[in-house]
Write a structure and sequence with these properties.
363 residues; four-stranded antiparallel β-sheet; six-stranded mixed β-sheet; Neuraminidase; mainly beta
Length: 363
């Protein structure tokens, strides 16, 4: 019979305890880590609507966005009057990376290749075939370009080489898609009308409408009315909704200085969620309370970007980024001051409204 020494027995016991303790510690670390992440938000169902309550702590503090400038259109030093852009209204990008820029002053479209080299201009002011007097939003689908002309209630179709194809007449002015934007294979267009009412005073009617792939009206996704006394139209406009959408969801924010909440609708206009985030009132440099949300956009991944006012440095471009309604992190875009930011297809496009310079970024 072999008798183990006391030291050997102690070593064996230590090894056994180590084998037991390490997995337990590892499991506890995982549990605590998951608990920490879950603690940053809470999701629950309320009458069929998913409520996501976010704290001010991000779910992923490591989340970052790195911008890479891949193109620049210099209008400050442009001497060719044909190439010069007077005022940029909106931009779209095709599958090849070509840019199409609507010059609202000249009523023409500027086309640039994926490296921001000038290609051509097309379109002209008027109400004849292929002409537009009051154009809406450019939309590029495959090899076609669509532009609404508000004065004739027509959708103008070009190919991506700028050749006019056809005008499509829409008869109902109340349902005309003035500023359509791509919503999956469909379109969404927002309209605002301010009209006098004998009983209500001045009324602002705000509609968000859904259209099929041929710009035919399908239904109202969202309707709202605001009232004011005569002479207070500026106050009404200030109440207008902030909206954005990805391919399948519509996000709507009713302006507030007290509450940070975005309502989420599906592509049939049914409310499916609420995004809430802890918020306290903030004052701007003029000692006035600011809205909790400045603007909203969605990126190529379908994530929601909410621009907020940064009281520490109001000139910074600061965003709260949400994925699946969960607050991921707060990011600052490193873009030169004076540029407006737009997510267009798979790029971020920045436009300087003072000199019409354009910068294109990958991210």
């Amino acid at each position: 019979m072999t008798i183990k020494s006391e030291d050997k027995m102690k070593k064996e016991l230590k090894m056994k305890l180590t084998k037991i303790i390490i997995p337990i510690v590892f499991t506890l670390l995982i549990v605590f880590s998951c608990t920490k992440k879950e603690a940053t938000y809470k999701q629950y169902d309320l009458n069929g609507i998913r409520i996501t309550e976010n704290s001010t702590t991000p779910a992923d503090s490591t989340f970052r966005i790195e911008l890479k400038e891949v193109g620049f259109i210099d209008m400050e030093n442009e001497t060719d009057s044909n190439r010069y852009i007077s005022m940029i209204a909106n931009i779209d990008i095709d599958s090849e990376g070509n840019l199409y820029i609507m010059d609202i002053m000249k009523r023409i479209i500027h086309k640039y290749d994926k490296n921001c080299n000038f290609v051509k201009t097309f379109g002209r002011m008027g109400n004849g075939p292929g002409e537009f007097e009051y154009p809406g939003t450019i939309n590029v689908r495959k090899d076609s370009i669509f532009i609404p002309n508000l004065t004739t209630l027509q959708i103008i179709k070009y190919d991506t080489d700028g050749n006019f194809i056809v005008n499509k007449r829409m008869n109902d002015v109340s349902k005309f898609p003035s500023y359509p934007k791509k919503f999956g294979k469909r379109y969404v267009s927002e309209s605002i009308n301010i009209l006098p009412d004998e009983e209500k005073g001045i009324v602002m009617y705000e509609d968000i409408n859904l259209y099929d792939s041929r710009f035919n009206f399908i239904k109202y996704l969202y309707k709202n009315e605001y009232y004011a006394n005569a002479g207070e139209t500026d106050e009404l406009v200030e109440k207008a909704l902030v909206i954005t959408f990805n391919d399948s969801l519509l996000y709507v924010y009713e302006k507030s200085i007290d509450k940070y909440q975005i309502d989420v609708f599906d592509n049939e206009g049914i409310k499916v969620g609420e995004i809430r985030k802890n918020y306290r009132r903030i004052k701007d440099t003029h000692d006035s309370y600011v809205h909790s949300v400045t603007s909203m956009v969605t990126d190529k991944y379908g994530r929601l970007w909410i621009e907020i006012y940064d009281e520490a440095d109001p000139k910074k471009y600061v965003y709260d980024v949400f994925d699946n309604d969960i607050f991921i992190n707060r990011v600052v875009l490193d873009i030169e001051e004076g540029y407006y930011r737009y997510f267009v297809e798979d790029k971020l496009v920045a436009v300087n409204r003072d000199n019409n310079n354009v910068k294109v970024y990958e991210y």
